Amino acid sequence: MRNWEVRLAHHYGRDHVPLPYRVGADWWRDEFAHIRGADDLDGLIRVADAWAADPQRFLPRAAGEVPFEMDSGLIRFPSRGVTSEARNRTAYIAYRPLGKGCPMVLAVPAWNTQRWRLKTLLPTAKQCGFGGASISLPYQDERQPEGWTYAEALICSDLGRTMRSMQQSIIDTMDAVSVLRQLGHRRIILAGFSVGSAVINILDTLDPRPLGVICVLCGDDFARCVMEGISTRHIRKSIEANISREQLDRVWRPLSAHLYVPKLRDMPRPLRAMLTSHYDFTFPTDTGRRLRAQFEEHGVKHEWTEMFCGHYTLSCAPFSLRFLAWFRTRLRQAAALPDGADHD
User: Fold this and answer.
1) CA distances from 237 to 21, 219, 227 (A)
2) Of 343, 339, 332, which is closest to residue 105 (Cα–Cα)?
3) Backbone φ/ψ region at 325: left (φ over 0), alpha (ψ -120 to 50), beta
4) pLDDT tens string 323-341
5) What SS3 class is residue 281?
6) pLDDT tens-digit readout, 6-36
7) Between 18 and which of 77, 109, 138, 238 could a Cys-Cys bridge form, CB atoms 3.0 to 4.6 Å apart?
8) Is residue 142 within 8 Å of residue 136, measured between CB atoms?
9) Which of 17-21, 86-90, 98-102, 313-317 has the lowest mean pLDDT?
10) How far apart are alpha carbons 91 and 227 in whole angstroms?
11) CB 320 within 8 A of CB 307
C-alpha cells in the first residue's frame, strides 16, 4: 500500500518545486506594528499566538451580504483574504443546484484537486436530494497565477504566506456559505477533503450556519502533516534546514485542528462526520487517531470512520466505491434531519 501511495504522490507532485524558504513575517506587517521585517521569526510567532488566543479576530464573518456575480453556473465573489496576486483576489464557486432553495453540498477541495474533479460527487449528492457546489481555494483553477502548475502558495515554505493562504481559504469558504444562503439555500453541508478538511475543521468552530460538516482525510497537527507527509517532501527540504520543529509548531499552531477541538462543545451540529485512512502517509494515520481521541476527550458529538486505504488510493477502486457509499449514507442522514434553528 505504501508503494502504491508513493507512486500516486509522485504522479500528482512531479512538477512541484518549492518556493524559497522565507519566514514571511512581512505578510503581517500591515496589521502588526511589532514586525521588524520579513525575517522576524519572533514577530511571526507573536502573530500566531495572537491568532490562537482570538481566532475570530483573524477569521471574521462578513459584516453584511457578500456581493457576487453568476454566469453559466460559475459564481464569482471578491476575496477578503490578503494576497499579492491579482488573480487570487476573486473567489469562484461551481454551482449546480437541483432547484431554488434546495439543500446543497459545498465541497472544499484538496490541495492539488481541480474544482471540476469533484463533479464525481454530484450524482451521489443528487441521489440524496442535494445540489452540489465546489469552491476554488486560493491559487487553484482561475485563481492560479500565470505560469504556475499547481496551488504552490497555498501550502509552502514561506511560513507567513502559508498562514495568509489558509486564513484566506477559511474566510472564502465562510463567504461561500453566505453566497449560497443569499441564493436561498438554508440547508448546507460542508464537505472538506485533505487540506479542505483542515479548512472545515477550523470553520466548524466559527460558523453555526451549516447543517453539518463532513471531513475526509484529516489530522490534528498541520505542521506535522507538512513535515512528515509524502506529499510535501519538497516543502520539508526547504524548511528543515532553516527552522526547528518546535519553532515551526508555534508558527503554524493556529492552522492545526487540535487547537479548536475544545470549542466544538459549544457548536453542536446534527451531522459531524469524519473519515480517515488506515494507510495514510500524507496526513500520518496517528494524527487522525489523535484528533478522534481529542473529540472523545472533549465530548464532541461526531461519527468517525477509518477506511482501509491510503490518502491517494481513496480515489481508486474499490476504495472509491466504498467511499461513495459512505458519503451517500452521510448525506441521507443529513436529508432526514429536521430543519432546526436557522442560524444567521
Assistant:
1) 9, 21, 9
2) 332
3) alpha
4) 999 999 999 999 998 765 4
5) coil
6) 898 877 777 777 789 999 999 999 999 999 9
7) 238
8) yes
9) 17-21
10) 29
11) no
Q: What is the spatial distance between Cα 88 and Cα 163, in angstroms, rounded to a whole number?
A: 15
- Cross-strand partners of 158: 22
> In the CATH scheme, what is the homologous superfamily, with its name and number, of domain 2-335?
Alpha/Beta hydrolase fold, catalytic domain (3.40.50.1820)
The alpha carbon of residue 44 and the mean position of all alpha carbons in its chain are separated, in whole angstroms, by 22
Cα–Cα dist 225/232, whole Å: 8
Residue partners of 202: CB distance under 8 A and separation at least 6: 55, 59, 170, 255, 257, 260
Whether the Cβ atoms of residue 175 and residue 61 lie closer than 8 Å to each other: no
Q: Which pLDDT score, from 0 to 100, does residue 343 have?
A: 59
Cα–Cα distance between 157 and 161 in angstroms, integer? 8
Q: Which residue in this structure is represented by grid cell 496517528?
A: 286
Q: What pTM was computed for the model?
A: 0.96
